[in-house]
């Protein structure tokens, strides 16, 4: 298997992108000069003065216990104390996963065995110290690119691990928001790995917690992580999905299907129905629920059927004020975003990608089961469906 195809061209393409970003920065500055309301919004972090290695070594260290999505690791919404070094370990696992009731399967490439990988939660100005472990049993080389980080390739160039290797990357979480992380080994292996499940998200909370546009604190009672995944499975001449013996064996077939830009599956949390039935998300009337949604490769549009986004950070940036009262929100491919909704009614709510073909035919649907007391003022069935009287 080729190890890092096209890594050179990947690097030069990134350099081109960073040039574009510099131009964007200039435009923003002009905007800010002409519009003081905008100028007030993007605040640099309060404690972002660079620390020496000695100062970093003196910071408190905490180990984050990773949990599989849709759950988030234990965390404080408002940070106590100053910046910390948060130790995170991700174990790469190449594993066969069944994707739907028809038995379609894929050799998924995963962080910690789940699609998406586990959510990491830190506060702005914390240091993330990641140990990335690629076991000897793996077939492929992997790495990680953190969209939350600042530095070349998001750490991608510093974390290439062949089977049997591990690497440690430290970055300072200077940007508050929710961000994607993903594997990006180089060339065509980048979409191949991302579209085999190798992505996840990190939430970098403001140290003093989330806020509405007017500064009012926003808190949540529960939090869930919905990772949307597009898969591109190849079929044989009998129109059946091809099954493979080992990870990586589907490389050429997969590239052929990916080139059509038409996914065979678009799912939440790894497989069709993962967040339905036993996987249904739970909440109660009166609870505020944070829903983080990531899509590492493709645009999407979450919608909570029967509810709304009370507060929505569609781009995922917590330095921008949340939008309010949305029906559907946009998450750009390669990004995470989030919404908070306070449930007012009990029942089953579908949470979908509101391209309904993708929701119903391709798999991008989840359920919330909400308990509590029905409110007739908000909705009431005045007459049951019955014979037309007139
Ligand atoms: Cu990978």
Q: What kind of sheet is the major sheet?
A: 6 strands, mixed
The class by helix and strand makeup works out as: alpha+beta
Order of the strands making up the biggest sheet: 13-12-15-19-17-18
CATH fold topology of the largest domain: Immunoglobulin-like
Q: Quick one: CATH class of the largest domain? A: Mainly Beta
| Alpha plus pi helix count | 6
Overall, the morphology is flat
| Number of β-strand runs | 21
Mean pLDDT: 90
Beta-strand content estimate: 25-35%
**Bound chemical compounds:** copper (II) ion
Could you please describe the fold and organization of this structure?
A hairpin with a 6-residue loop joins strand 2 and strand 3 (105-111). The protein is α+β, with helices and mostly antiparallel strands. A six-stranded mixed beta sheet has the order 13-12-15-19-17-18. It is flat and about 80 Å long. The model is unreliable at 1-42 (pLDDT under 50). Helices cover 15% and strands 32% of the residues. The protein has helices spanning 7-34, 36-39, 53-57, 189-194, 251-258, 356-361; strands at 61-63, 85-98, 105-111, 120-123, 127-134, 145-146, 165-172, 177-182, 199-205, 210-211, 217-218, 222-231, 265-268, 281-284, 288-295, 302-304, 309-313, 323-326, 335-342, 347-353, 365-371. It contains six helices and 21 strands. It folds into two domains: 59-209, Cupredoxins -  blue copper proteins (Immunoglobulin-like, Sandwich), CATH 2.60.40.420; 223-371, Cupredoxins -  blue copper proteins (Immunoglobulin-like, Sandwich). Copper (II) ion binds at residues 109, 142, 183, 185, 193, 198.
């Amino acid at each position: 298997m080729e190890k890092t195809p096209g890594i050179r061209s990947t690097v030069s393409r990134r350099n081109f992108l960073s040039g574009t970003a510099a131009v964007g920065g200039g435009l923003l500055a002009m905007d800010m000069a002409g519009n003081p309301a905008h100028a007030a919004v993007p605040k640099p972090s309060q404690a972002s003065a660079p620390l020496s290695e000695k100062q970093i070594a003196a910071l408190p260290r905490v180990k984050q216990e990773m949990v599989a999505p849709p759950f988030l690791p234990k965390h404080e919404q408002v940070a106590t104390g100053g910046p910390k070094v948060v130790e995170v370990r991700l174990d790469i696992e190449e594993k066969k996963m069944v994707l739907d009731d028809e038995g379609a399967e894929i050799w998924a490439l995963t962080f910690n065995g789940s699609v998406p990988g586990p959510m990491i939660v830190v506060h702005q100005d914390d240091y993330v110290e990641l140990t990335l472990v690629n076991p000897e049993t793996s077939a492929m080389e992997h790495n990680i690119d953190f969209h939350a980080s600042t530095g070349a390739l998001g750490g991608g160039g510093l974390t290439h691990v062949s089977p049997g290797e591990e690497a440690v990357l430290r970055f300072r979480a200077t940007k508050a928001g929710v961000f994607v992380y993903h594997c990006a080994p180089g060339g065509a292996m980048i979409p191949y790995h991302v579209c085999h499940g190798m992505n996840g998200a990190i939430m970098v909370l403001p140290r003093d917690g989330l806020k509405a546009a007017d500064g009012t604190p926003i808190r949540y009672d529960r939090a869930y992580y919905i990772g949307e995944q597009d898969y591109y499975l190849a079929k044989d001449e009998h129109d059946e999905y091809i099954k493979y013996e080992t990870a990586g064996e589907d490389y050429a077939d997969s590239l052929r299907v990916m080139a059509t830009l038409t996914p065979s599956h678009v799912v939440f949390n790894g497989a069709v129905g993962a967040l339905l039935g036993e996987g249904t998300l739970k909440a109660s009337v009166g609870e505020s629920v944070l829903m983080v949604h990531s899509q590492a490769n493709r645009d999407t549009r979450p919608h909570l059927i029967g509810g709304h986004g009370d507060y929505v950070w569609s781009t995922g940036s917590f330095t921008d004020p949340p939008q309010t009262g949305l029906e559907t929100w946009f998450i750009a491919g390669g990004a995470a975003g989030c919404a908070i909704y306070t449930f007012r009614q009990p029942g089953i709510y579908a949470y979908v990608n509101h391209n309904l073909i993708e929701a119903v035919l391709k798999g991008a649907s989840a359920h919330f089961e909400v308990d509590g007391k029905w409110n007739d003022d908000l909705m009431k069935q005045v007459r049951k469906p019955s014979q037309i009287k007139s």
